[in-house]
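During the first year of the project, the team set up a workflow for recording each protein of interest as an amino acid sequence followed immediately by a discrete structure-token representation. This format lets reviewers and collaborators read both layers of information side by side without switching files. As required by the reporting guidelines, we include two representative entries from the current panel. The first entry is reproduced here exactly as it appears in our internal archive.
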Amino acid sequence: MLTKDDIKSIEEKNISRELIDKQLGQFKNGFAYSSLNKAATINDGIIKNDPGTESEYIEKYKQAIKDGLDTIKFVPASGAATRMFKALFEFIQTDKNNQSQLLNKEPYASFVVKLSIFAFYDDLLEQLGKVNEDIIDTNEAARIIECLLLPEGLNYGKLPKGLLKFHKQNNSCTTPLEEHLKEAAHYASFNNKGKVHFTVSPEHHELFKKQLAKSRASIENELNCEFTVDFSFQKQATDTIAVNPENTPFRQNDGSLLFRPAGHGALIENLNELEEELIFIKNIDNVVPEYLLPDTIKYKQLLAGILLSKKEQAFEILEELDHANANNIGTTLTKGLDFLCAELQMNRTQLEALSSDEKTVIIKEKLNKPIRVCGIVKNEGEAGGGPFWVNQEDGSISLQIVEGAQIDPNDAEQQKILQSSTHFNPVDLVCYTKNYKGEKFDLKAFVDPATGFISEKTQSGRPLKALELPGLWNGAMAHWLTFFVEVPVSTFNPVKTVMDLLRPQHQPE
């Protein structure tokens, strides 16, 4: 099935032949659905924030920073903004007679009428050669949209979201790249120094560096914070082979194999290379203007404080087990079992029936893992994975972020559990990636490879099937020690379509 040229191209990507065979098998056999036990809800998998303890957790995090806790902010930013402008692309691809009818419908009517509200408006004026003129003219709608999206204009349809002008305040406009730096200065910095890591596409790297060079100095001066900013690319070795609908390798017009980026789950490789012990993770498009940052800052610090508290409990148990003797092993094992039962809902009766050695093994197995605390918001209709208790092969249950596509659509009971979910994950994570001995975990060892999925795509008009790795905050972190904490919806302000920029939380003060 594979030629010498195929094998050469595989080797150039640093992909093994065994892995290709495994991927082809996954296309044929598919992936098993997740087995939901129940939805995670308040006080049953989701920690309800207690205003009375907020300051305690926040202070714990601030003190840890002062004591040398090494932190960094990790922002997946490789995606282009194409989907953000899907409706506008459809408009310019429609014949002119139907365009006039579309202008009476949403989102087109609001887009044209409210054009001057967008932060990119002045750039659009200049590109159109209409500086200081009113361009809100429905007769020019197609020209305006083409100028916004296409390469001969602002090229917003091909640029990454991180470099689009999202917000304007007074006479300045800011991109998500800049907003993330400002956030980091407020909650991921110490002694006027902060670190941010962006994952970007190779073709956008120079554009990111150019924007950073343009805006960095003013932000550093404004916030009195010096930034270390790094970029990395999704590794070619994580690309997956594409196949035809009948599961044979998809070949491009020149006969070569087609490999595709395997989704954000591939970024576990990038995350694994960070040396910092505490890592904030947040999507590139979930930003607000600086005047709305107080809630974001508060709850990021709160999540970090809760993580440090859980970490201290787990580490204390693990360290005591290492130094336990016949006189105190019973007390330490009881403490460990208490944690497993309270936090992981493990069966006390079954645990008590084990020998001391067996108890020690299972406590270490369950606690000696990377830790993540995930901010969870009430579900108000936004798309996103939800928090669930999921059945594991060893008979236990564990907290997982699960997407709807991972649930069997034909299983009524599983669908009922899915629909009972009250919260969802806005990609708001704080992670701790070192063990109780101070050694860095190999994060790849905690991935559940069985949680990938297959999607249907097209290439040059031809249908194909694509394989996506377990998502970064789904299967790629499946075997982490996980805690969910409810945070207010004010901390979640994604921009999935251009019209989201008209929401109040993306408008000037």
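The second entry, processed by the same pipeline in the following quarter, appears below.
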Amino acid sequence: MNQQDYLTQIDQVNARGPFRPTWESLATMPQPAWYQDAKLGIFIHWGVYSVPAFGSEWYPRLMYYRGTKVFDHHQKTYGPEFNYRDFIPLFKAENFDPAAWLQLIKESGARFILPVGEHHDGFKMYASDFSPYNAAQMGPHRDVMAALHQAADHQGIHFSISSHRAEHFWFFNGGRTVGFPTEVQDDQYRDFYGPAVTNTTKNNEQAYLLGEQGIVPTAAWLDDWLVNSAEMVDRFHPATMYFDWWISEPAFRSHVQRFAAYYYNRAREWGCDASINYKYDALMYGTGTLVQERGTLGNIAPRLWQAETATARHSWGYTENNEYKSPAEIAQVFADVISKNGVFCLNIGPQSDGTLASEDVAILKALGEWNHVNQEAIWGTGPYKFFGQGIQQQAGTFSEDYHYGDDDYRFTYRPGALYVFALAPNNRTTFTIAALKKDNDGLVAPIKKATILADGAPVATHQDDTALTLTTTQPVAGNMPMVFKLALA
């Protein structure tokens, strides 16, 4: 099917389906029931950029921008005649074992996976009718998304998918102005490098930082984005679908509505609900699921939302010598997110041969062990009257440099039980929670019994008009957040 036929099909489906490309109609699609209690998902950034494994998954852009560390590294390591396309044959994925990946992911406690189907670099990780530059025809010579989908189904894990194609409109524009010949300048490779539209004739770090500013997608690109997005939907029937930020560009507005209606109508044909993950105001509130990249919300949200971060601090894709977070730091953020009615999505970045980084494996295993002993406080629970106490984060993206201390607690709740996450136990025996003081509006039901959830050890309680104090019989070992269960009368 060519693009024009696909556009016709999209409009035909939207004309006969229950959802129309209007915000009022799209708002009638409920967030999926399974998603409401998913709590944890695993994001997967894997692609050609894992071959150079330097800087970040933005290597393909920065390798053409003077003044960046990636540019200097690329020139020194590969030279000016080595283009990004030349990495594709080196992306072999020879050790890719989707069954092993999904077994580990299931053991982590995750309820869904969110692999990137196409990143800004335009290389599709699935068989596509619209570009030969895909993993089924080049590089791994394997439909990676289909393999992950099959493995996820086998484990009972929901399969979602992420598209970053919108940004491909300008992502390689540095290759036009870098000052020496590149394939980006050659129209015979336009199908791979995309339009590479530029808003400046300069090629330096400042131009890179300007990014997409001042660039407006063309009508042809908007149609291309819509068709490629619809192809993902039809090939994989994703449980949710994620888009990166540039679809918030005003020119995308009507095409986003057409896509949302198509996706939601198709989901109803499959007999299920669906939701689109979006950033900023790319969708109207109530028509999808807001996401916060490397950030959080300041308080409990009335509508389910999603936060995502990576195991690594400086990249979403695999890079050598990256700095990884500790399992405790990740568990702290997880607890914060679910206390505010959120879903936590943790990213891993596989190596180019398909091997998971040892750091990712260790983090997933540690998180899985912690989730297992504390599952009662996570799944089947919801927010309490307030999220907890301690650091009051500012809502927003790229604001995750949190440093939790003794005073930081997060709450989850089910009728009859309040779960208190002490985010930083710090080898203490005494935990003082001012938010749960006597006669406060926070806790009105009497506490029948207090225990450490992981092992059922008894905990002494004392509540007065200053705080609720919980005292354990011995210091808590380890640095992962500790969960108290307060059984309420």
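For the second entry, the following points were noted during internal review. DSSP finds 14 helices and 17 strands in the chain. The longest strand covers residues 112-118. Both points are flagged for discussion at the upcoming steering committee meeting.
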